[in-house]
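Anyone up for a design puzzle?
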């Protein structure tokens, strides 16, 4: 006899899994800041070897040297993040969390390992190690490393939400299903934000953060630079992307507030998302006005990650009523198949 599908109401809230994953989410904030700060001060090659640092897990004098402290701290934080991901995956399987949470746990491990390898390739294939006259290989892996970090963050956010009491017992705050278009607006806003973060990563690793040294106008008092090269082009693309992201997020928030179901569940989150957007614009301007101050620049990157995380969390939460409907339909289907009448009809056939 086929096994019955698991009803979403049978999924138990596991406090230890939720709080551990929430702790991992706090930890990744430190990791993102360390990675962003290392890139900002151009300390990614403070050590020419990997995975060890100068042949040691505790290199001599690393706390006294700014570049070494930044890079080695990033490596140590990343190592702990990997261990946390493995622990979350094992815990999800041992405590028999929902199938979707267990799958996300598996992917957390796969992605964090891939992320570590990308970071290692960024070092190993640097021009300083290859002794070549360009650094395209290292920069490509650095951009991939930065991008995958944002996707890992989104997966971890989904993991935290899926293990929360609100998701399991309170339908993620929804008393009724929101408009189907709400999720579409969320996907568009998340996609635009991810694209903007990728462009920003390319700009940072190409050292083009001050390619246009004035804001909001160019030094020629125009919105569009009169002359372009790669650095100016990628910098200008980042400014255009900021406008697109702003429009997409505002449209998403308006859609949240217009729908009664989503307004009750996510109205405050939408206000928080707009606040993060305003902070991001202000930090972007300060990066130029403060001539790429290392802390302002890093906070700009980190706040961008926060913006994506909140936007994605809202989009993911909006899917909860749909997940419930699919689960209920699956349960009804399994019940029909397992019923005596259905079995009898199958036998007659």
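Challenge accepted. My sequence:
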């Amino acid at each position: 006899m086929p096994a019955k599908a698991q009803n979403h109401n049978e999924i138990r809230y596991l406090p230890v899994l939720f709080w551990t994953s929430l702790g991992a989410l706090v930890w990744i904030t430190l990791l993102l800041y360390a990675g962003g700060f290392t890139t900002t001060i151009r300390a990614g090659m403070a050590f020419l070897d990997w995975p060890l640092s100068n042949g040691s897990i505790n290199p001599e004098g690393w706390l006294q040297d700014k570049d070494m402290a930044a890079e080695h701290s990033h490596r140590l934080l990343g190592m702990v993040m990997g261990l946390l991901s493995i622990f979350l995956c094992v815990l999800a399987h041992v405590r028999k969390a929902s199938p979707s949470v267990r799958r996300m746990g598996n992917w957390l491990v796969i992605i964090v390992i891939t992320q570590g390898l990308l970071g290692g390739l960024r070092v190993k294939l640097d021009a300083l190690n290859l002794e070549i006259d360009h650094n395209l290989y290292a920069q490509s892996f650095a951009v991939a490393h930065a991008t995958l970090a944002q996707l890992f963050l989104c997966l971890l956010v989904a993991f935290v939400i899926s293990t929360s009491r609100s998701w399991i017992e309170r339908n993620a705050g929804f008393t009724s299903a929101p408009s189907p278009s709400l999720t579409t607006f969320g996907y568009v806003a998340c996609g635009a934000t991810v694209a903007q973060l990728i462009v920003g990563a390319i700009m940072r690793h190409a050292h083009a953060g001050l390619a246009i040294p004035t804001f909001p106008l160019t030094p020629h008092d125009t919105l569009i630079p009169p002359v372009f090269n790669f650095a100016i082009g990628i910098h200008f693309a980042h400014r255009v992307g900021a406008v697109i992201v702003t429009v997409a997020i505002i449209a998403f928030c308006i859609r949240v507030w217009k729908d009664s179901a989503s307004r009750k569940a996510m109205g405050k989150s939408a206000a928080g998302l707009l606040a993060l957007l305003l902070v991001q614009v202000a930090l972007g301007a300060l990066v130029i006005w403060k001539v790429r101050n290392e802390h302002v620049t890093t906070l700009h990157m980190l706040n961008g990650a926060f913006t994506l995380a909140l936007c994605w969390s809202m989009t993911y939460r909006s899917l909860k009523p749909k997940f419930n409907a699919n689960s209920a339909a699956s349960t009804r289907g399994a019940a029909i198949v397992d019923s005596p009448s259905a079995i009898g009809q199958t036998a007659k056939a």
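A detail worth pointing out: The radius of gyration is 23 Å.
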